[in-house]
Amino acid sequence: MGLYKRKDSPYWWMSFRVEGRRILESTGTNNKKLATRKLKNRIIELQERQLVSSVKIDGKTTFCDLANKFLKWSEWQRAYKDKQTHIKYLIKAFGRLKLKDFTTLRVDFYYRGIIDSGRAVSTANRYLQTLKAMFTKAVDWELVEEDVLKRVRRVKLIPENNRRLRFLSRVEGQALINACEPHLKPIVITALNTGMRREEILSLEWEKHVDLKHGFILLNRTKNGERREVPINQTLKGVFQGLVRHINSFYVFTDSAGRRFRDLKRSFTSACRKAEWEKCLACSFERQKSEGESPGNCPQCSKEVLRVVGINDFRFHDLRHTFASWLVMAGIDLTTVSRLLGHKSLTMTLRYSHLAPSHMVKAVAVLESHLEFG
């Protein structure tokens, strides 16, 4: 009992008992004096928690009870709407189940079931993260024993593939715009010209965010929590000036009743399905759909040009990737692109670096002016 060293760790480890239960934990330090202090504090902490738990935790609290408390507590958070959605599905799964009855097996089966149903790993991870956050608060609020939280935490997240980079060519982008319904077209044009996220676009307010006089969209609260200014180019300025402001709404994009749009999935999917353009499969030449019955031959390689219908495997968020990709391919430096996207670090923007091979060519070409070979 006390402190000890392990061969597989540089830190001091704690070994002690609380209420007959043996605890083995790392102190996170190789300083013995600091480790001794941490050991004493940890024992006191668990003893106090055990005392409080034995008095207040009755084991009757259900998941629905926790869900209501958690939603009330998280009202002020930026991701509150997402949490509402997650918890709605969690309630369907766990309903009136008492918190003390949650097990690692039960949570793991639920988590794997989401993935087996065909939903994305990222979706399953968001639900599991919300569930873990709820049980963390349940322990803080003394609604459940810490052992139950440990059971939930044993279910590990599956790594996500966040390297997806799907973007449109200029011709595909125009074809998509042409296929959009009237209410969707200005929204898609805004996404392609600003790189803004869907929720950032749909929540735009005329007086609060759009400054046509100085040519900026001002986003005070973004996903990373920082203020961002997005320039308005002439194309986007024309779009904004052409929009009809609803007298009963302060939102930029609204339906005929002045309500802001919440979900664009159906109309966006329809536009992707209807988009048409022409392409040469031999040399990848592309152009907008011609009026004639037959596209004819390719002006570059004389091969047959085919009419293409439908943009596949494309989501609204990929418009953001398209915006960034077009900028990089036009020669805009990654630092500027990163600032426009609102990335916290340049690392997130480096996924687009392969689209700017000309920069590497120029870098190698510098050697030619200094050395002679042969």
Layout: helices, strands, pairs:
Blueprint: E1 2-5, E2 12-18, E3 21-26, H1 32-56, H2 63-73, H3 80-94, H4 104-116, H5 121-140, H6 146-153, H7 170-179, H8 185-194, H9 198-202, H10 206-209, E4 210-211, E5 216-219, E6 228-231, H11 234-242, H12 265-274, E7 276-280, E8 286-288, E9 305-309, H13 318-329, H14 334-341, H15 357-365
Antiparallel strand pairs: 1-2, 2-3, 4-5, 5-6, 7-8, 7-9
- If you average the pLDDT, what whole number results? 87
How is the biggest beta sheet arranged? 3 strands, antiparallel
Radius of gyration: 28 Å
Placed side by side, the strands forming the largest sheet appear as: 1-2-3
Domain count: the total is 4
Distance between the termini: 74 Å
Task: Pick out its properties.
DNA polymerase, domain 1, single chain, 374 residues, mainly alpha, elongated, 15 helices, 45% helix, 3-stranded antiparallel beta sheet
